[in-house]
Amino acid sequence: MENQVNAMPRIGDLAPEFQATTTQGEINFPNDFSGKWKILFSHPADFTPVCTSEFMTFASMQEEFDRLNCQLVGLSVDGLHSHIAWLRTIHDKIEWKGFKNLEVKFPLIVDITMDVANLYGMIQPGEASTAAVRAVFFIDPSNKIRTIMYYPLSLGRNFDEIKRVLIGLQTVDNFGVALPADWRPGDEVIVPPAGSCGVAKSRMAGEDKDMHCYDWFFCTKKISKEQVEEKLGK
Ligand code: BEZ
């Protein structure tokens, strides 16, 4: 795949397939994880401080992602021995923000050739030509890309937002709704827009007592935090 230029994957595309060596053995992505949500994320390099803080945060949240039926898969342009040594250092030596002895249980892809990083548009030469930027791909159980985030090398990701996006996507799918700005479980959700003049009129007349309409095209309803948690198996 030398010098191959790939179109960057987009929201709605099927996740590009690849085979790779990881710290948990060989994987075929995304097919090995079909039926689960997947977060595929890249980081610039092993043994660097921002990346270490991110790995410790992801590792500390492993059970939360398990409960959400989500497989984490990391990647950097480093070799297997470097990955293993770095993860051992994190476990054995690093204490940060109250986290210590953290075991990274998710696979970390070896991508010395940058094949996978190029396939997913993780190499952005204006930022770095030999290291991946901080990309995050949210991929659904049918292997479709649903959300993409990119951060530069110098800025660590917001893991609360990563979890919020995963829960948000699952809520959209499970309840057939849209979600307003800054939505969190328990907040009101947006019902699909009125599809006829009759529905618009009845909504504005307040005929559905479970709905609150700010105008005919902007109606919300309550889904409790408990309902979201029950459905998502949190
Ligand atoms: C870091 O993870 O600390 C880092 C990596 C590459 C460039 C800058 C910071």
Automatic annotation (TrEMBL):
Amino-acid biosynthesis as UniProt keyword: no
Subcellular location: Cytoplasm
GO cellular component assignments: cytosol
Record-annotated active site: 51
SS bond list: 213-219
Reactions this protein catalyses: a hydroperoxide + [thioredoxin]-dithiol = an alcohol + [thioredoxin]-disulfide + H2O
Binding site for substrate: 134
Protein keywords: Antioxidant, Cytoplasm, Disulfide bond, Oxidoreductase, Peroxidase, Redox-active center
Signal peptide residue numbers: none
A Pfam family recorded for this sequence: AhpC-TSA
GO MF, one example: thioredoxin peroxidase activity
GO biological process terms, semicolon-separated: cell redox homeostasis; cellular response to stress; hydrogen peroxide catabolic process; response to oxidative stress
Highest rank taxon of the organism: Bacteria
Keyword check for Protein biosynthesis: no
UniProt cross-references to InterPro entries, sorted A to Z: AhpC/TSA, Peroxiredoxin, Peroxiredoxin_AhpC-typ, Peroxiredoxin_C, Peroxiredoxin_TDXH, PRX_1cys, Thioredoxin-like_sf, Thioredoxin_domain
Family the entry assigns: Belongs to the peroxiredoxin family. AhpC/Prx1 subfamily.
Biological role: Thiol-specific peroxidase that catalyzes the reduction of hydrogen peroxide and organic hydroperoxides to water and alcohols, respectively. Plays a role in cell protection against oxidative stress by detoxifying peroxides.
Subunit details: Homodecamer. Pentamer of dimers that assemble into a ring structure.
Anything else known: The active site is a conserved redox-active cysteine residue, the peroxidatic cysteine (C(P)), which makes the nucleophilic attack on the peroxide substrate. The peroxide oxidizes the C(P)-SH to cysteine sulfenic acid (C(P)-SOH), which then reacts with another cysteine residue, the resolving cysteine (C(R)), to form a disulfide bridge. The disulfide is subsequently reduced by an appropriate electron donor to complete the catalytic cycle.
Protein name: Peroxiredoxin
Highest classification ranks of the organism: Bacteria, Pseudomonadati, Bacteroidota, Bacteroidia, Bacteroidales
